[in-house]
Amino acid sequence: MKSFGIKFDALVVRAAAGSARTIGLVALVCGSVVAGTNANAAETAFIPSVAASPPPAGAQQLCRQYTWACAKKAAISLPSHQELRLVKQINRQVNASTRSVSDQSQYKTRERWALPTSLGGDCEDFALLKKRDLIRAGIDPSKLLIATVLDTRRNAHAVLVYRSGQGDLVLDNLTNKIKPWSATQYLFLRMQDPKQPRRWVGVYGRS
Fold first, then answer.
1. Which residues of 85-95 are buried (b: 16+ CB within 10 A; e: fewer)?
2. Which residues lie closer than 8 Å to 91 by C-beta, 6 or more apart?
């Protein structure tokens, strides 16, 4: 099981919720985010962010190691239907061609964010490979955001979020099915900032 600084994430969420109650912009009620429209997180197409956040421990050198992982804008723009076709194709390809291997067994360390090796990789390595391949295919990198979550068993996990025009879709190494974030039953914790992927934001979304 991974940590990703989950205890810190929980503190960020509580702190953000407290300040948001004070200014009346965002309220956290029974694990959901209520915005000015009174729509809760499960009904929101895009993952709501609540506070700036340090990157996960394993991602602190990510931008130096892989400049494309923190790129902001693509030189070209693809039609939405073509983008979605590429997203589905590459998600399947990476899931089928990459073995799941823990950092501990491969690197003898608990947490290391890197592209998969010939042996394979763990969840964030899958997400990185999908992001790289989708950028190479022409998809705007600002639409491809790595996020840390708690999965359905509340184990730490990482996924790639594709920010489509209709909402955030999740690319997951645990399934080939691409779902809206609100249909995953995951608890979202941190995500690359859509406006500046070098930074991270604390998010609070429960599907």
1. ebbbebbeebb
2. 130, 171, 176, 178
> In CATH, what class is 6-206?
alpha beta
The residue assigned the tokens 């996020």 is 147
pTM, to two decimals: 0.81
98, 111, 93: which is closest to 158 by C-alpha?
Answer: 111
- Beta-carbon neighbour count of residue 30 at 10 Å? 7
Write the Ramachandran bin of 102: left for phi over 0, alpha for psi from -120 to 50, otherwise beta: beta
Contacts of 113 (CB under 8 A, 6+ apart): 56, 58, 59, 62, 65, 124, 125, 128
Whole-angstrom Cα distance, residue 182 to residue 195?
A: 21
Picking from 91, 85, 115, 86, the residue whose alpha carbon sits closest to that of residue 175 is: 91
Q: Give residue-wise pLDDT tens across range 162-205.
A: 999 999 999 999 999 999 999 999 999 999 999 999 999 999 77
Q: What radius of gyration do the chain's Cα atoms show?
A: 16
